[in-house]
Amino acid sequence: MSAIPYEAVIGLEVHVQIKTATKMFCGCRNEFGAEPNTNVCPVCLGYPGALPTPNREAIVKTIATGLMLHCEIAKTCKFDRKNYFYPDMPKNYQISQYDQPLCLGGRIDLYTLAFPKDAQKQEQALNPRSVRLHRIHLEEDVAKSFHFEGYSGIDFNRAGTPLMEIVSEADIRTPEEAFAYLTALKQILIYGNISDADMEKGQMRCDVNVSVRPAGATTFGTKCEIKNLNSISAVRRALAYEIDRQIQIVSQGGTIRQETRRWDDARGQTYVMRTKEQAHDYRYFPDPDLMPIRTDDGLLKEAESLVPELPAAKKKRFQERYGLSEYQASVLASERSFADYFELAAQGAKQPSLVANYLTNDYLAAHDITEPVKIPAAHFAQLANLVDSGKINSKQAREVLAAMFESGEEPEKIVQAKGMTQMSDIAELERLCDEAIAANPRSVADFKAGKEAAINAFKGYIMKATKGKAHPQLMNEILRRKLTEGK
Ligand SMILES: [Zn+2]
Q1: Distance from the CA of 152 to the center of ligand 1, in angstroms?
Q2: What are the counts of helices (DSSP H) followed by strands (DSSP E) for the chain?
Q3: Cα distances (angstroms) measured from residue 470 to each of 164, 249, 358, 430, 481
Q4: Burial of 433 (0-12, 13-18, 19+ CB in 10 A)
Q5: pTM of the predicted protein model
Q6: For residue 370, what pLDDT is reported?
Q7: Of 282, 225, 333, which Cα lies nearest the Cα of 89?
Q8: How many Cβ atoms are within 10 Å of 234's Cβ, its own excluded?
């Protein structure tokens, strides 16, 4: 380790495929996984004379993203041609936005649960920061090349599909913050139905810029770019490796070369892809085929109507309205479909917090939060009400839950089938308590000598005799009364 502390300066560029019916500038379908080269036309193949028409849905969804991320929405913007040659770009230019992007500024608020699990107790996760955004612009994606043994193939289905580029300021300081940033961004994109943001499918692609400097310095070190990271955890690992590599070099008096690197996940290393010779000259110029866009032409209103209640607001509402703990509310609100499911289940429950408890503890212990819940929401309400009314106790409820997950059967039917109703017959409980006390004289002496825990011996005896059906509260009251009687 180096003698002086270093800090990392990290900025992220995230490309997000927008979920739209058709491509950015033509009517071809925008779908993942279609047969190669089936969704193509003269416009997206760049035939001479073919004219682009902007996709309203893509523009509206980009504005909606900007609204959700607290950006300033430009009143007007335009599309530019970014000229470069690339085998999977048929026109030899990409339509993008240069100096007039759709969204400016903005921020992403990090939150504790967005951090990797093993870092959630650290200061950076407990008091999470906001990361400022630089801009969001809209462009078209390029085609996709495939490399086979002796040849390469290109699938033009992806050429011309709408792509957002979300550029952060260099506000991120640790690999864990980068992880939280991407998790929080992904959550918002899914919440707003903007994109499925599945990194494995390439729907969200991330490049990172990273440099190091002595902690507290205000100037930037020389940065390296790591391209095309394909999972959020890969971003974390690649950054941890790269920061360490740069600190090693700098602390030994070396200098960092500005270069583009790739991440080898299997080896756990970054390696040089190319060194930066000069800045690219893309010869940007306004696309002569596309008119500037005025966002106040109804686009902004349309985008506003797409913005849902966001996770932070939902979390607050869940705490206030349903009396949930901060943790419960935060877990439930983290996934829009799961939050909707909870609200549906909570509708019929007298104590919604019980439903929240079953969902966040028992259900999530065995299921993934992103998968749709297969059990009808009303079953959770029914189970909570069975406990609430004292028909079954919480221990029995856990057993019903397990059966519910297994068979999908209604809780009431499970309770009936298992002959599970809670025993709250006072006379019978009185008799059992007497029996328990008579059978455990030593525990009686211990309890009377002040050992509170001795009462568990009687409870265990009664639970065993009733196969766990005794009403715990009633049992407790009767036992205490009998044990302290005549004292
Ligand atoms: Zn097309």
Answers
A1: 22
A2: 17, 17
A3: 60, 68, 22, 11, 17
A4: buried
A5: 0.83
A6: 82
A7: 282
A8: 16
Distance from residue 159's CA to the centre of ligand 1 (Å):
8
Report the separation in Å between the CA atom of 58 and the middle of ligand 1, taken as the mean of its atom positions.
15
pLDDT of residue 79: 98
Residues of the chain with pLDDT under 70: 1-3, 276-279, 486-487
pLDDT recorded at residue 485: 79
Write the CA distances from 476 to 47, 97, 433, 452, 457, integer angstroms.
82, 71, 9, 12, 12
84 CA distance to ligand 1 middle (Å) = 20
For residue 350, how far is its CA from the centre of ligand 1 (angstroms)?
A: 54
Helix, strand, coil fractions of the chain, as percent rounded to 5: 40, 20, 40
> How far, in Å, from the CA of 44 to the mean position of ligand 1?
4
Whether the CA torsion 234, 104, 195, 24 is positive or negative: it is negative
Q: For the chain, how long is the longest CA-to-CA vector?
A: 102
Q: How far is the CA of 204 from the centre of ligand 1 (A)?
A: 22
DSSP structure class, residue 29: B
pLDDT the model gives residue 467: 79
pLDDT at residue 463, rounded to an integer:
87
Radius of gyration of the chain (CA): 30
- Which residues neighbour 291 within 8 Å (Cβ) at sequence distance 6 or greater? none
What's the residue count for the chain? 487
* Other beta carbons less than 10 A from residue 370's beta carbon: 10
pLDDT at 2: 47
Sign of the CA dihedral with 294 first, then 300, 303, and 309 last: positive
Q: Which residue has the tokens 């995230």?
A: 14
Report the alpha-carbon distance of residue 34 to residue 36 in Å, rounded. 6
Rounded distance between C-alpha atoms, residue 449 and residue 445, angstroms: 6
How much distance in Å is there from the Cα of 462 to the middle of ligand 1?
74
pLDDT at 226: 96
Q: What is the dihedral of CA 414, 417, 420, 423, to 10 degrees?
A: 130
CA of 91 to the centre of ligand 1 (A): 12
Cα(30) to ligand 1 centroid in Å equals 9
Nearest CA among 62, 32, 75, 50 for reference residue 292: 75
